[in-house]
Amino acid sequence: MKSNPFKIQEGSVGDAKVAGFVSDRDSGNYLDLEAAGKSQYLGKFFDSRRSVNLSMVFLFLLLTLFIRAVYLQVIRGDNFRNIAEGNRIRSDIIPSNRGLIYDRFGNLLVKNESYFFLYLTSDLLPEDELTKEKLFDDLANVLKINKDEIKERINTNNVNGEVLIYENLEYEQAIQLMIMSEDNLSIKVTHEPRRQYFAELGLSHILGYLGAVTEDDLEDGKYQSHDRLGKSGIELIYEDVLKGRDGIRHVEVDALYRDKNIVSMTEPIDGSDIVLTIDAQAQKKLAEIMDDNSVRYNKPKMAAVVLDAKDGGVLAMNSLPTFDNNIFTTVLNQDDYQKIISDPNAPLLNRAMSGTYPLGSIFKTVVGSAALEEGLINASFTVRSTGGVTVGNNFFPDWRPGGHGLTNIYWAIADSVNTFFYSIGGGNNQWLNVGLGVDKMMDYAKKFGLGKETGIDLNMESAGFLPSKEWKEKTYGERWYLGDTYNLSIGQGYLLATPLQAAVLMSYFANNGQVYQPHLIRQTEEDKIIEDFDPQLALTNIISSDNLNIIRQGLRETVARGTAQSLQSVPVKVAAKTGTAQFNNNKSPHSWLAAFAPYDDAKIVITVMVEEGGDIGLAVTIAREFMEWYFSQ
């Protein structure tokens, strides 16, 4: 058995090294600490101070992790949740329709027309350069443009990863691109509304146009990156009324960005419609008459305003040359735009309210009113016109070389007698020692609304200009001369006004001393509530009714026997004032006419100004043709 290796040994321990071991006494559990201390140390690895520091570090790390967890889960939780949702939810904007614009009779002045648009999502473009280049080649072939244009638009117009590549796609192009989008998710074809203007109405300056949003517009949160908003005219002034509210569609997509189902949708709200004071037929006729005469007489620059004499509403307003505001409705064609802005005749300028010109003899109504009201003259006061007035070495002529004969205020207005107004404006030793003077004339000019904006609801209105002695001394370093006063008294020299201001001035005499602020808005519709515009009284009680009737009679005699006798062909009685205004010795003077009709109960006031129209009465011709048509309807 001793040789059997698998037998468990019993009895005493055979190993001498553990001799004397007795299990009941726990032999081997005793440690001689005294002996151990002689050769080694048994105790803490760190002292108390180090343990505290280590614990503080450990607690700081735990606190940092806790704060970070709170920040991520509580403070930024919604944001990260949205990002996570964005990985499977796509938000599509549903464009709203812009409000429509109507004339006073309900005729449509602008409409919305839907176009196809091509967008590229830059984040979804192929990563492989060869595949990306092939995509650009295919798009360029469909769009018939150079692929470098596509790359440039991606580089310059990349907003939130989505880039507008092309507007106003043809139907066949849109279908091709839709088919391509099935295999390339970066391609997106939409159907969106854009403005369509009626060019034949000549409303470009009034309605204005839409343009792309700027970074400042995007900061407000009211616009999307590819929206269009009003940049001029009615489109700008009533932007908040016309603009609708876009809808939004949340679509669940799969890992390949393909639509699965609609999660939620908010319907768009269309903009509110507005009604203007414009008479579309009158506007169209005025534009046709001006175009015809512009071509016939080779006078490309002119303006006309037709106001409702009762309340100041603009019935028609046109400025030549004009422009096609439809070029701004889609991606701006730079060639067309450059052609417009490089035109020396400045087609973007609304001459009717932004162009300023010497007012010419139209201003004689102001000077005559001032002289009557100040008691300087009366209806019996006369001056004998013999051809002009000499002051020192300077001669100030009448327009008739032989003069106009014995002249009172009626004939002075009717035949536009310069000598009469030289005398009451600056004085004349023969008939009137002391005239009104520049200060008094300018005081009355301000009362009649000159030298300040009329307040019409359009942008870029000019205030015109009223000179003074102080202004001339400061600007030219010389004093104000009597000759300056003479020139001012017939509307020449430094005085500047707009055709719209001239129409407001004539409205005072047309409406028996009451003028309402010119305006274009007639009705607005907000939240399905239609509100009528309340005209604001602008001018009243400038001169007495007796003096007002004297000027009115002089304006009537202008047509009956004076400088505007051709207006007798109009079916109703017309009162008017003609004018020619010198502005450059080497160029023809501007041609003016301001009139109202019918004389006894005025319905309209019309002002026409033809730049360099000369003395052939072109402004009278245009006004006559319009009033013949208007009062025969």
UniProtKB/TrEMBL annotation:
Residues 302-628 form the Penicillin-binding protein transpeptidase domain. SUPFAM superfamilies: beta-lactamase/transpeptidase-like, Penicillin binding protein dimerisation domain. Keywords: Cell inner membrane, Cell membrane, Cell shape, Cell wall biogenesis/degradation, Hydrolase, Membrane, Peptidoglycan synthesis, Protease, Transmembrane, Transmembrane helix. GO terms for cellular component: plasma membrane. The keyword Transmembrane applies. The chain crosses the membrane at residues 52-71. Its main location: membrane. Residues 94-256 form the Penicillin-binding protein dimerisation domain. The keyword rRNA-binding does not apply. It comes from the Bacteria. One of its GO terms (biological process) is proteolysis. GO terms for molecular function: penicillin binding; peptidoglycan L,D-transpeptidase activity; serine-type D-Ala-D-Ala carboxypeptidase activity. It is found in: Cell membrane; Membrane. It is a single-pass membrane protein. Pfam families: PBP_dimer, Transpeptidase. This is Penicillin-binding protein 2. The gene is mrdA.
